[in-house]
Structures are given as structure tokens and as C-alpha cells.
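In the laboratory, one determines a bound structure by crystallizing the protein with its ligand and collecting diffraction data. In a computational setting the workflow is compressed into a single prediction: the sequence and the ligand go in, and a structural description comes out. We illustrate the idea with pyridoxal-5'-phosphate.
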Amino acid sequence: MANRSKRLFKRAQRLLPGGVSSPVRAFGAVGGIPLFIQRARGAHIEDVDGHVYIDYVMSWGPMIHGHAPKELTQSIHATTKNGTSFGAPTTNEVELASLVCRLVPSIDRVRFVNSGTEATMSALRVARAVTGRNQVIKFAGCYHGHADSFLVQAGSGATTLGVPTSPGVSSATAAETLIASYNDLASVKDKFAKHERTIAAIIVEPIAGNMGVIPPAHGFLEGLRTLARRYGSLLIFDEVISGFRIGKGGAQEHYGVNPDLTCLGKIIGGGLPVGAYGGRAELMDQVSPSGPVYQAGTLSGNPLAMAAGVWALKNLSVNMYRRLEKLGIKLASGLSEAARAAGVPLQVNSIGSVLTPFFTDEPVTDYMSATASETDSYATFFQAMLAEGIYPPPSQFEGWFLSAAHTEKDIDLTVRAARKAMQAVHAKR
Ligand SMILES: *Cc1c(COP(=O)(O)O)cnc(C)c1O
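The predicted complex, in C-alpha cell form:
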């Protein structure tokens, strides 16, 4: 029984909106009460009632090395002894910047912030400043954090909760955000045809991860690159998930397409709050204090966060990605097989160490096809997996994340649980 979680959630609901600090955590899409987590190590998390689960949320992506690697926690401990924030430059900040610039092909200079949200809103500010234009093209179902400009047909929690445009976003701001369809270049051309000289940037998740995982169709990213150049707009890759996840150089290295600006988050902080945006020197030199585009942060480049980031990026290896990809393939085929055996329609989209099982017959390539999935079936599946000691994301529209700490045995246990869970889905459909 989840007695302690239940009690805590009751109390939390009186004190925090919805009882949580971020919406999808509330389990709204799958029912039941959220589990309060006490500790995590490796691929496992333990709730306050002492139940242990194989974790596929992995803090929504950051924990590629698994939870609480010893060297990482030691490095953070050692750093705290020298103070936790100075509001002044530090050695690790330069070290992390040098790692980012070396690993990510299109980044010459980088600015550290505290979240992915700050990274995307600041990158858009740079794009608006250098182009002297205001509009931005984003894709339905892509999520770029919660800044006003991006809360129009956003993914992640907004998709889970069915919010087209959040109340509180001014209509003037919403009007500057043009919505195109993912993997559909014609929809982007159409926006440029109507707004030839007013679009500052295209922002895209080069591998969509917030309407569930949707890889880019062949030629899609190249096409965006060409269109942005032709119309004098900047191309912004939001690699907050794909950065350091799909390989050391992110999606831009994997697909060989260089954006003008890149947004980073999640893995870059090793589980501490870090975001970053970067790009070619002449663009980033527009940012204050080298240039006029103002952007600042009291805790930006925080010493603990920088220490964690340095450890996380230094420990990425080609071998790790190879192993992660193998595990990803094993999990994806295991889930497909479990669904087939139970006669449940399932499409598993997977790339490297991230995947989403969509409960649908049709291929999932964009927001429309993603939202055609049976979310009730996902909810049934989720609850059955939880009962078997597996912790998947509490929404159909999120990625499952593997880490270096997951083992073949973890995948075997997960697939075994999925066979049972798919039977439960079949019985309910
Ligand atoms: C998580 C995410 C963000 C927002 O990052 P926060 O740190 O939650 O503000 C932005 N873009 C993408 C693609 C993300 O997955």
C-alpha cells in the first residue's frame, strides 16, 4: 500500500498547486496518486513506502549515467565544502564550456542558465535581436519549456492535459508564434510564403520527445536548414533532450545538420539545474556583456551544478552509447512482442536510449498521429507496470529513458512485466 505517499499527497495538495512542482508528476493522465520518492540509485528508485522500481523516467532525461553515481555525488560533496554560490566566475564553468564547445558541432560559445526554459527563451531573444524580426515557427506537439512564446500547442504536460494555448499568454505573443506540423516541410514553406520577411527563427526538437518520441523523417532537418537560410531566419535546435543523449554531439552530429543556435538542458547538469544556449561566435557575441542582448542569472553557472555537469559530460563514452542503443533495441522489441502476443495495437518509436510505446495501429510521425493513441490503454498499462515494480513515465506523451545503470536483466524483468500488463490492457479494451 502507498500509505505514506497518499498522506503526503493530501498534504501537498493543500500547499502546492495540484500537489506538485511540475504538472505531469501528479499522475493526472494515468490516475492514482503520485509516488513520493525517497531515494534512487543506479536504475532504481524507492518510494517513501519502501517500494523499489526499475525507473524509466530518470528525472525526465538527465540521469544518463544512472542515479547517484558515486563519483558524481563525491564531486558535488567536495565542491560544497568550498561554498555553494559566489556570483562570480569559477574554474568549472570554463571547464564545462570547453566540453560543450568541443562536443557540440555548431557551438563556439555558450551561456549557462538554470533550466531548458531559460535556454529557449534566451535563444529566441538572440534570434529576434540579430534578425530584427518577431515571429517564430514552432511545431505542434514540440515542447520548449514554459516561456510565453512556446506555450502554443506545446507538448509534454500541455499535451497530456490538452491545453492548446495556456491562459495567461497574451494574444499578441501567441500571434507571433506560428505553428507548423512536425515532419511536414510543406507546412513550414506555407508559413514562409505568408510571412516572408517577419520570421526570426524556426525552433525544433530535432528528435521530438515531448509528444512521445518521434524521430525526424529523412530530409526534414536538412529541409528546415535550407528554408531558414533562404528566408534569412535562424534555425534553433532545442536539444534539451537529444543533446548528449543520442551521442556526444547530440542530434546535430547524428544527422549532420548544424543549427544556428542550440539549446541544452537535462543531461548537461548531471541532475542539477543547468541549461545552456550556444552557437557561432558572432551570434553569441550579441549576448550581454559582449553585446546588447540582455540575459543574466544570480545562480547561473552555479558551482555545484557546474561540477555535476563536468562530471556528466566527461564520462560520456562511445562504448556507453553503443551499450545504451543495444538496450534500447532490446526494450523496444520486447514491448512490441508483448503487445503482439496480447493482441494489443502498439507502435514503438525508438532511437538510441529513448523510446515511446504508442497504443495505436498507425505509424506515429507527428502530433496528429501521436494524439490518436489510446491514452486509456496507456493508463491501464502504466498502472499494471507499476504494480509489477516498473516505473514508466505517467503519460503516453513522454519518452522512456535508459541509463548506463540499466542492465539486460532490468530489460528482461521489464518485458516480463509488460507481457502481464498488455494482458490487462487487452482485457480492458
Ligand atoms: C525539458 C525540456 C525543456 C524545458 O526544460 P526545463 O529545464 O524543464 O525548463 C525544453 N525543451 C525540451 C525539448 C525539453 O524536453
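The longest strand covers residues 199-204. Keep in mind that any predicted model is a hypothesis to be tested, not a measurement.
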